[in-house]
Amino acid sequence: MFKGIGKTKKFLDSQSYIKAAYIFGSMAKKSAGPMSDIDFAFLLDNKMSKQERFRKRLVLINKISSLLKTDKIDVVIMNDSNYRLNFEIIRTGKLIKDNEPARVAAETGIMSVYYDRKFYDDRHDRILLKQIEKGGLL
Fold it and tell me: pTM of the full predicted structure?
């Protein structure tokens, strides 16, 4: 996939607060170009506060950048992300760390919310696009 992934996986496996890790975006779709970044998504322990998750995000960015020898990475904490992005991560991402019970519970919840909201989101998107076609957002 890319240089340094072995060391990165080893590091991620050693972090018990990470319940699941994904690579998503162009790297997962095998459409990455020379300017592409590497998108990582993490499901962290639910017992962590939002502030703790923010701190861990900074640690993950620093450590992964160091291991991969690039600053072209992006880190999403799924616990704090919206359900539409989380659904796309699950649907198209490649799982690189898995604590199955925690991951399955989280994915089930994310998919449930996504499918519960899909009709309304699609309707909203159609209305918004029609408004834009007619002359803008206002």
Answer: 0.87
